[in-house]
């Protein structure tokens, strides 16, 4: 790999990569070659060989070649040549004197993606866009983050599951449901693994996790919504309150962000100009009603008919928390039952409230979590109260008829976490292939 060249001694090397730039001069030709580990300068021509003072042209030992003159940007080439360390070479202090160059696959001459192309053009040509080092880094960050989360789960004895994405019923609100033809009938795409992660608790899997796709037929064209996204889900048994879920949530995020900072912090700083910040524990916790009072006192009345917060309110409460506690995260707790799904447990003292929370990161919601209602009579009553048909839900309600421990969990949008971590404008920048109301290609 190109990054390994600097540590090697001068001598013959073979490198492959994409042509980034060609400088075709009269006596010397330069090619900047890039692979995913870095870039190196290739030279054809003698400028860097010791010139003979008697013969001013003695440095031009290798003839110019049309192979290089005609190289198009983006072509994939393999080069054999002499590695030379040279402090004057700005790009990494090494260069390779070309001895043999093979154009493995040429690129068409006009690269459809330029530095200033808009996001839609870049997404049309996502494979070219992903060649940019910043984009490559996004997915290394994702890998490091998820690996650290998995390590926490595995260390705690959690089991990884894969739940079906084809379902017979809705798993969250019916409004955002994709319906698909399914032989003679119809099926729905899973909006969340909610029911099946709870099934694992009834099955005696004390702790589970899943990282998988979730689908939402969401018409909104915001920077934080996609119709398909990656959901990080976990569920654990024998909890006493949502506090146990929040503690796991904190532990996972701290582990993930620590790994990203340790492994990739320097590169992130170089390419994105930002420092990765690992949050301190515990994260601040504010009951939703109190959060609304705080933003109201600071001049913003949440313009919603229901009891919920709106995105602007979330931004403002996050700004308040940042100022007061210097923290990027805040758990908003005790959501009103009217705006929460039927499976959230209600507060024993105040049944108007749920044992649930949202986690806000830098002003945007990244998660919903809750203790679940595990008592079948209560669960059934709550489903009916929300206008749901218990017959349609019978497969799920059955999980609670044969003994189930108290449990809870959360769902967290991976793409939102990455967007906020890397301070990107849109979820589109950090999703391998974005899916939205107007995008099914590539
Ligand atoms: P919720 O519906 O809040 O909760 O979703 C959990 C998290 O998933 C992410 N998310 C999205 N990301 C991108 N595009 C979307 N359209 C989108 N919709 C949701 C968000 C959100 O916070 N079953 C519960 C979770 C639980 O209680 O365990 C659920 O799905 O980051």
Topology of this protein?
Layout: E1 11-24, E2 29-35, E3 38-44, H1 66-69, E4 76-85, E5 94-105, H2 119-124, H3 126-129, H4 133-155, E6 159-160, E7 166-167, E8 179-182, E9 185-189, H5 194-202, E10 207-215, E11 228-237, H6 242-272, E12 285-287, H7 288-297, H8 311-325, E13 329-333, E14 356-361, E15 364-371, H9 376-385, H10 394-397, E16 407-413, H11 414-421
Helix pairs in contact: 4-6, 7-8
The structure holds aspartyl-adenosine-5'-monophosphate.
Aspartyl-adenosine-5'-monophosphate binds at residues 172, 192, 194, 216, 218, 225-226, 229, 231, 365-370, 409-413, 415-416.
Structural class comes to: alpha+beta
Number of strands: 16
Question: Low-confidence stretches at least 5 residues in length (pLDDT < 50)?
Answer: 58-62
Tell me the CATH topology of the largest domain: BirA Bifunctional Protein, domain 2
Helix content: 25-40%
Question: What is the number of independent domains?
Answer: 2
Can you tell me the CATH architecture of the largest domain? 2-Layer Sandwich
Structure description:
The protein is 28% helix and 25% strand. It is α+β, with helices and mostly antiparallel strands and 442 residues long. The chain folds into 2 domains: 2-105, Beta Barrel (OB fold (Dihydrolipoamide Acetyltransferase, E2P)); 126-430, BirA Bifunctional Protein, domain 2, CATH 3.30.930.10. The strands form 3 sheets. The protein has an 8-stranded mixed sheet with strand order 6-10-11-16-15-14-13-12, with helices on both faces. The protein has a 5-stranded mixed beta barrel with strand order 1-2-3-5-4. Strand 4 (76-85) and strand 5 (94-105) form a beta hairpin. Aspartyl-adenosine-5'-monophosphate is lined by residues 172, 192, 194, 216, 218, 225-226, 229, 231, 365-370, 409-413, 415-416.
